[in-house]
Request: fold
Amino acid sequence: MGEPKKVLLVAPACDGDDVGESWVAFQWASLLAERFDLTLLTTYKRGHRPPSEQLPDVEVVEWQEPPGVGRLERLNSLMQPGYLPFQVRARRWLKRRLAAGDGFDIAHQVVPVAMRYPSPAAGLGLPFVIGPVGGSLTSPPAFAAEEGATPWYQRLRALDGWRMRHDPLLRRTYEAADCVIGVAPYARELLAGLSVKRFEVMSETAIHAVQPPIDRSGRTGPVRLLHVGRTIRTKGLRDVIRAMGLICDLDVVLDVVGDGNDRAACEALTAELGLRDRVTFHGARPRAEVDGFYERADVFVFPSYREPGGNVSLEAMAYGLPLVVCRRGGPGANVDDSCAFRLDAESPAQLASDCAAAIRKLVEDPALRRRMGAAAREHAERTHLWSARVEQLSALYEELVPQPA
Reply:
């Protein structure tokens, strides 16, 4: 066996102690380092452990984020104000490294997931992969009225399509890539008009293991539905609550785990529909407690209609839960019909009605719940483990790296 391939991993945020994309990038870095000679280009937040301390066996080239960048979490998450200085520093470093004759077999940028950032590794003569990328999903028009005022910085998402058509740096990144990996098939539509060499689909996150099988056959009492995620309008919780109002004849309850700016509206809707004794809002809970909710649940309901990824759906599958999700975006792509009801999202009334119909089928047919739950666990184990993601990437690298003559 020859020497491990030298892989350059570009991840402007990489932190195993953090959440979101930083945590995802750390999973990629730590797992790929077990198989390849890895160099990581990244930054770190002030007050956090630098990635070089978290990944002692990896060559880490890191810069501290600029002052003031992390003060507004949601703004920072959307706009990534620290990305430009990272782009400049990383590209300069990479050019110097290549000029010195110390190259890499392949470069791969794994975050940000949003398709609005050029890569410092593009166009330098290296085999280059970018992704999984996605984002830029818009809400179906019929849902917009219930979403309220959109903060000014979130309205900047509207520029994404224009920039993909006209920004030369951004276009070069995607046209130079030997492979673009999308979080779901819809990401391919965002690249229309570009000469993309190759496109593959892979979720941006995964699970480390499925849970031991849970025997739910002997349970008594109401069927327990579970919704996990930030309580914002786009996550579909209002639609689940309305669905609950349409199945009052069934013995079913709903646990809501998470918090956010739509919670008050959801609680008011619960009261209006007379569901206070059937819907319980638990707020944000520690990780160990969330696991307990998955164990006690019978059905996972997450009809988020603007969800590029949807890691909670993978977690639910790992616990052997049948799912009710929307067809669009990541959750719909992460499942198949053996383990999930995939719903369209045309209007709030339609989504609530279809959600109620799916729940009714699952509540009235315990055998169906068990079959779909078992299929969900098997699907997660077969396709959504981190180990499977690494195998997919390894095979892709093998195809893209030129073999010695």
In short: The chain has 17 helices and 13 strands. The two ends are 17 Å apart (CA to CA). The chain has a mean pLDDT of 92. The longest helix spans residues 366-383.
